[in-house]
Design brief:
It is a single chain. This protein has 196 residues and is mainly α. It contains six helices and two strands; from the N terminus they run αβααβααα. It has a single domain, classed as Up-down Bundle (Four Helix Bundle (Hemerythrin (Met), subunit A)), CATH 1.20.120.1630.
């Protein structure tokens, strides 16, 4: 781990997993009412594990992926660090605003209610936005095609496949309230033409 940007990434990566760990722990006692965990969901979660966790760590702690190294202009890792920090704030805030409604998979909790406040006031899936932004930051900080960009690529696949399934589940469970919410919010970024 000779590159100092690797240490920056590892530090922010640790914050990411600390946030996730806190909210996994808080959600442990919350019962699931509806679950859509199937083979597709498990495959997607494995690919995200591979791209967001395993390949970056293999790159940082071994020389196995050095064939895929490249050098970035000196400004880009700084921009990547800012992206990582903003992503972490949005990631934390998304968890905080969801509270006990959060689940790592396609599930509806007992006592689940539709969250439309905080960062969910303008974006339906800010946690996805945060992880995508984290993937961009990862690619700009880790100078390796596999270790750097694998998180973004694997999570884009997750978004493309899982997001329609998640919105279908939310529509099924919350009905017209969710359809109305969809009309006033953006999926991953705030809707520009939203009426105040």
């Amino acid at each position: 781990m000779t590159n100092p940007w690797n240490l920056v990434f590892l530090t922010l990566f640790a914050v990411y997993f600390t946030i996730r760990g806190i909210y996994i722990d808080r959600a442990k006692g919350t019962r699931t009412k509806v679950s859509r965990i199937d083979v597709m969901e498990r495959v997607l979660l494995f690919l995200v594990f591979l791209g967001n966790l395993l390949l970056p760590l293999v790159y940082i702690f071994t020389s196995w992926l050095q064939f895929f190294d490249y050098t970035l202009p000196s400004l880009l890792p700084w921009i990547g660090t800012v992206a990582l920090i903003v992503a972490l704030w949005l990631f934390w805030r998304s968890h905080r605003d969801l509270g006990l409604n959060w689940s790592p998979s396609l599930e509806i909790r007992e006592q689940h209610h539709l969250v439309t406040h905080g960062v969910y006031h303008n974006i339906r899936h800010p946690m996805y936005s945060a992880i995508l932004l984290f993937g961009i930051g990862q690619g700009l900080v880790l100078e390796n095609w596999l270790g750097g960009w694998s998180g973004l690529v694997s999570f884009i696949l997750m978004v493309v496949v899982r997001l329609p399934r998640e919105e279908s589940l939310m529509t099924e469970f919350f009905g017209d309230a969710y359809l109305a919410y969809m009309k006033t919010t953006g999926r991953l970024i705030p809707r520009v033409n939203r009426r105040l």
